[in-house]
Amino acid sequence: MLRIWLFFCLFFGAAAPAWGNPLNTLEPSNFPSLISGVRIDAPLYFCGEPVPLEKREVRERLEKELLLMLWNRSQVILWMKRSGRYLPHIEKILQQRQLPADLKFIAIIESDLRPHVGSSKGALGFWQFMKATGKQYGLKINADQDQRRNIFASTRAAADYFQELYAMLGSWTLAAAAFNMGEKGLQAEIMAQKIENYYDLYLPLETQRYVLRAVAAKLILSSPEKYGFRLQKEDFYPLLEFDRIKLKVTFRTPIRLIAQAAKTSFKTIKDLNPEIRGHYVTRGTHSILIPKDSAQGFHAHYQELVDQWQAKNAQHIYVVKKGDNLSVIADRFDVPLPVLAIWNRLHLSKPIYPGQRLTIYPGQTTPTQGLKTKK
C-alpha cells in the first residue's frame, strides 16, 4: 500500500504543474440540513392566494416537494442558471398581461426551462402544451415549425390560457391545477366533490403535487442563500439577447444561408429559433432571431447568398421508378443517403413509391441522367 501511495503522490505531484490543480479552486460544500430546509414559516402565498400551512396534510405535501427538490441540488442549480436566460422574458410578458409573477414557477416545474423537453403524452416545450391546446391558443404546430418551443410565443399562449382559466374558476391556484389536468376534468371534480378549494380536492396525484411543486420552487428560488445555493453573477447563463429580423422566403431555403448571412453557425440559428424543424425555412414571411448586433447588412448579404445558392444548386426533380429505393437512388446520384432524406423530409424507415417526386441537388461530378429540371 505504501508503494501505491508513493506512486500516486509522485505521479500526480509531477503532473500538477502541467495540468494545474483545479481542486484547489473548488469551494467546500456548506448548506443547511434537509430537516432545517423544510421548516417553513407562515404565512405563505402563491399568486397572492394563501397556502394553508395550518393544515397538517398540506404542510406535509409541501415538505415532501421541498425535500425532493433540495435533495436534487444539481437540478435546482440548473434552474437558477437558466433563470438568467429565460425568466426576464417570461416575467415581462406576465407583467404586460397583468398576471401574477408566481406563474413563472409553473414553467420551471413543467420544463426545467428547456425548449425541447417533451412528455410521453405528447406535451412539449417551455409550458408543456399538448398539440391541440397549443393550436387553440394560437401556436403554429406543423411539420415545419412548433412554436411550443418558442419562449415568446408559448409564454403568450400560456398567458392567454391562464387568463381564461382564472375567469372561469376565480382562483389562480385552481387555474394552475386546471393548466395541469385540463379545465373540464377539474370542473367535473369540483362538481362531484362539492369543494372549490384546491388544497381540499382529491385530484389526480400529479395535480395534487402540481401547485405545491410550484410553491416549493418559489421558496427555493426566491431565497436561494437560505437553502445553501450561493451563485455568483457570472454563474447565471446570460440573458437571451438577439436581433429580430423579418424574412420573406419565396422558396424552401436552407437555414445555413441564414446563418451565413448573420455570420454565425447553423446551430446558433437553431438554438435561437428552436421552433424551426429540420434544415429548411419554408415559403412565407418569418420572424427570425439572429445574434445580437448582426442585423446590419443582413438582408443584402442574405439575398446575395440565396442568389448564389440558386445558381449553383439548380433544383432538380427525380421521378421514382418501379424497383427504386432510397439507397439505390442515393448511390446512383452519388449523394449520402441521410442527405437525400433531409432534402426531401423523408424517414428512412418509410418506403417510397413509383411516381413520387424527389428533390436532388447534384454536384459537379454527379450524373444528371434521369433528372428533370424543375420549372
How is the secondary structure organized here?
Layout: H1 2-19, H2 34-37, E1 45-46, E2 49-50, H3 56-71, H4 73-96, H5 104-111, H6 131-136, H7 151-169, H8 172-181, H9 183-193, H10 205-222, E3 243-249, E4 253-254, H11 255-261, H12 266-272, E5 280-281, E6 284-290, H13 298-312, E7 316-319, H14 326-332, H15 337-344, E8 357-360, E9 371-373
Antiparallel strand pairs: 1-2, 3-6, 4-5, 7-8, 7-9
Helix pairs in contact: 3-10, 4-7, 5-10, 7-8, 8-9, 8-10, 11-12, 11-13
Task: Explain this structure.
The chain is mainly alpha-helical and 375 residues long. The protein is 47% helix and 9% strand. The protein has helices at residues 2-19, 34-37, 56-71, 73-96, 104-111, 131-136, 151-169, 172-181, 183-193, 205-222, 255-261, 266-272, 298-312, 326-332, 337-344, and strands spanning 45-46, 49-50, 243-249, 253-254, 280-281, 284-290, 316-319, 357-360, 371-373. The strands form four sheets. The protein has a three-stranded antiparallel β-sheet. Strand 1 and strand 2 form a beta hairpin. The longest helix has 24 residues, at 73-96. The model is unreliable at 6-20 and 364-369 (pLDDT under 50).
